[in-house]
């Protein structure tokens, strides 16, 4: 087993361990297989825990999701504060002035639909015409008054409770805490007749205007008459008037009495501070009947809480391309929270907050609606929606895999074309508890994020994406594969994972001989423990035992050709002699980095994204020196074919070296261990071998 093929890794695998492995008989390997199979961990079943806090740093996008998750009543804290303003007292409030029992629709001008807070209106609009809506002042402010009235009642009730001698934290308090924020109540200790504390309201906002969020999405647009015609349907325009002098805003109305906003990629978002009725016209442009046919359909919504439809092309896409093979791609979201407590939170692990759309860049069907949730549902090539198209091409779920083991949503797209470029578009689902899009929910129209690009590998590439490994649980990328031996990715993942886990068992036996958990005076290092050593070993092992695979045709300088004299298992072809002749006739090129891959997988020629050098340094630093780990130094023989280095290209979305959780990060990726080379850790092989005589 230490035959020539082992030489490539002799510098990387620590030598004594290899020696030990050479006595690892096939028989015991088989026995271990059975054990490990029994040990495959089932999906994590998180247990309930307190509600997630909003402490994360994932940016407003994520925070917004959790904030909404926690607010089923559709109110926001800003609104609660706004409602605390010294507005008309409860006695002045007309109880029959509610949203639904007023004959309000009758007040809208004929032909003008009235908008209701957070309820989208969906209408067709024929090219060259305009649909007009009104969001009436009474609705904008009536709702505010109603909320204030309820707030007032709650505070009165709270005050009475306090007067009656209840202490905070008593009995029912828990049930109320969601709706009553004690910090918003200021008690005026001096005030009030009979020395009774009097509630005063915090000042906020201007009572004569209110912020209203208007948003619209194009759901259907005229289609090109022929695929040879370039371009897409022109965008809709939203016209807005706040004056009664213009109650039907549109292209033919007085421009001094309206403002207009052209949709961008099928979406528009407008915030207004209003003190009166607002008239909205959604106008469809004339279209060229020789190029396009059909009409438009759109959704329009008004909200005093937040945008019902939302898009954000500014902030970093919250979607990370992990890796692809010829026909599939794996993408993940950022950590949905920074809090490890959340891992046991059922809410976060059971609700998938996103859907994803994917589009071959050659496919123009979604042009013009890329910021519209309903437009993407209509036109995106691949939608991960529950009732959408192509759902069989998408597998999604929550996962704790990857660096940090924090919750994130994972998307696996299959059935893609080889050597193709795609964009992935993530959209946050509105949070009404069930994760379904819907009316009467703040943000119910979905929030569309900036697109992330990803590519598939060449046809017949002998690399296959594996993920969700039980042991190497941070490993998720394309690995050298052989579809004739392993018909699916799950099977392939099991074989690699079992190999790594068997190796780890051996290491664990070695480590058990070392006094790590002994008293301080006997421990190998005060700074590092056995647990640190184990963790560093696992990171290193999973990256060297399960190589990250690239197309042989990819000529990036950081890739190491492997197994060049073997046939491609898919085509049966050997490398063209002229191509093979370009590479040195050495084991580093002629074989994989360990014999297991050539013997068990037999992938044929591939290129390896080498493990990052810092994985090795971290191992050397974290483990007792008498184990004998050592790393080759950059510039010395063996380094270039064994380890890779992080580089500036990583910030442009390349993966120049492999590490657990490696992915195509387009901004500054997570910083790796910044360790320096530790010369003192090199121990002579003889010493290390001596040590292993006792194992
Ligand atoms: C979104 O932002 C990206 C990156 O800044 C830009 O290339 C793209 O054109 C923008 N898309 C639209 C439709 O504005
Ligand atoms: C998740 O969090 C971990 C630990 O903080 C971090 O190292 C990792 O880069 C994060 N992952 C993503 C995808 O942002
Ligand atoms: C694959 O390519 C074919 C032919 O170009 C195209 O019609 C099809 O839409 C593509 N499929 C995907 C998922 O990109
Ligand atoms: C390379 O591998 C082939 C086939 O496995 C073998 O015949 C040949 O001797 C190897 N060459 C070297 C230099 O190891």
- Structural class assignment: alpha+beta
- Strand percentage, roughly? 15-25%
Count the strands?
A: 28
Query: End-to-end distance, in Å?
Result: 19 Å
* Average pLDDT score: 73
**Uncertain stretches of 5 or more adjacent residues:** 1-106, 165-206, 668-695
Structure report:
By secondary structure, the chain is of the alpha+beta class. 23% of the residues lie in helices and 19% in strands. The longest helix is centred in the first third of the chain and has 27 residues. The N terminus and C terminus are likely disordered. Bound molecules: 2-acetamido-2-deoxy-beta-D-glucopyranose (NAG) (4 copies). One 2-acetamido-2-deoxy-beta-D-glucopyranose binds next to loops.
Which secondary structure elements does this structure contain, and how are they paired or packed?
Blueprint: H1 7-10, H2 15-22, H3 26-38, H4 60-70, H5 77-83, E1 113-114, E2 121-125, E3 130-135, H6 137-163, H7 173-176, E4 186-188, E5 198-200, E6 210-220, E7 223-224, E8 237-241, E9 259-262, E10 267-274, E11 278-283, E12 292-293, E13 296-303, E14 310-312, E15 319-324, E16 329-333, H8 346-350, E17 354-360, H9 373-379, E18 382-383, E19 394-399, E20 408-413, E21 421-428, E22 447-449, E23 452-455, E24 463-466, E25 477-480, H10 489-511, H11 530-545, E26 548-550, E27 559-562, H12 577-580, H13 587-590, H14 595-601, E28 606-609, H15 613-622, H16 639-642, H17 685-692
Parallel strand pairs: 1-3, 14-22
Antiparallel strand pairs: 2-13, 3-11, 4-5, 6-10, 6-13, 7-12, 8-9, 8-11, 15-16, 16-20, 17-18, 17-21, 19-20, 21-22, 21-23, 24-25, 26-28, 27-28
Helix pairs in contact: 2-17, 5-6, 10-11, 11-15
The structure holds 2-acetamido-2-deoxy-beta-D-glucopyranose (4 copies).
